[in-house]
């Protein structure tokens, strides 16, 4: 063992360096809502809440379940959250290194900027695992298991990652071997939710809710056209080369749909970047020649991130984490107004998870009222739930309809729910950037 470590010490130090940089780069970035929702899901699981039953989310359960288990064991705070997610990202780099060690450095430079903690990192890991397993002709049972795990992380990606298996349509035994672990793992998950009285909720939020998500969050623009051109390029490349890994790269492009924006698209092409770096060795060699210069890019970005964040230290539930001044002032205003008395207070805000986690208030199904995250016909059903809130309850909304300027989230806020609250309940004042209503 010691001999192996000595022989590979340069590689080991390289990956330790990668891991530290990934952790630091993300830890000191300004916090965003997508990250907070992922962190909130994991917090809920680590506290013993049942997914879909006790709180709602649109993704399938593997990422919060797995990461929540790790946090339960290692520690329930944001440092552990970032450490775990940095490990997922590091595993991707290790697999890419195994696939082609020559491209690891330029790939890392691109990949680093898209390692924000969340379920997308886990799906990227599964894509590269599938490419590696196919390339090395590994067990079909294992490939089927990875496809199933991808499905249980994000259902749409898992479904499309299963499509390359149709290539073996003339080898039914091979396909059956891949289907068996998919069936077994999903039966286990279905059984878990059934015995926890959450099976209908699981189906409703994780699958039926996607109908609302797609209809309410389509965002077609110039990026849509670019993504379609990339798809055409991948198809043409596959027809020329018959390179099987291109089928997985094409399948992963589905994650850009239906939120066609820069963030989703840059993530969707990560496997394609790997392929292009392999194909165009001159680019890779250029990166290697000027490696000391390019390593400054993530370091300078880290410094800029920290400067932009203008953070203040928060020693509450976000133990060891910095929050932007904007969020800290919001939290201070809520504390001053409610004096830590939050019984029968309901938050209908984009930032509900962030505020409630920071104020140590339990999360519930009212805290993520975004289109597509409330199950089938979710807006109308949520309004019916609001009607059943007991009289005297306090409802907090934004001063104006909170249509965020973040393009990725812009259309997800529910104006229908906002209008119902502001038109049907009595306003009792406002403070900071919040309006207060009473039922």
Characterization of the model:
The protein is an alpha+beta fold and 439 residues long. The protein folds into 2 domains: 2-303, no CATH class; 310-438, no CATH class. Helix content is 63%, strand content 6%. The protein has 22 helices and 6 strands. The strands form 2 sheets. The chain has a 4-stranded mixed beta sheet, covered by helices on one side. Helix 2 runs parallel beside helix 18 (296-309) and helix 4 packs across helix 5 (78-99). It is globular, with a radius of gyration of 23 Å. It starts with a helix and ends with a strand. Mean pLDDT is 85; it is low at 404-409.
- The level of helicity is 55-70%
Amino-to-carboxy terminus distance: 67 Å
Rg, Å, rounded:
23 Å
* Low-pLDDT residue spans: 404-409
Read across the widest sheet, the strand sequence of neighbours is 3-4-6-5
Shape: globular
Average pLDDT confidence is 85
Number of domain modules: 2
| DSSP strand content | 5-15%
* Assembly type: single chain
Give a nutshell description of this structure.
By secondary structure, the protein is of the alpha+beta class.
Could you outline the blueprint of secondary structure elements for this entry?
Layout: H1 2-7, H2 9-27, H3 33-46, H4 62-74, H5 78-99, H6 104-112, H7 119-135, H8 140-151, H9 155-162, H10 172-195, H11 199-217, H12 222-241, H13 245-252, H14 262-268, H15 270-279, H16 281-289, H17 291-294, H18 296-309, E1 311-314, E2 321-324, H19 325-338, E3 345-347, H20 352-358, H21 378-387, E4 394-398, H22 415-424, E5 426-431, E6 434-438
Parallel strand pairs: 3-4
Antiparallel strand pairs: 1-2, 4-6, 5-6
Helix pairs in contact: 2-5, 2-18, 3-4, 4-5, 5-7, 6-15, 7-8, 7-13, 8-9, 8-10, 9-13, 12-13
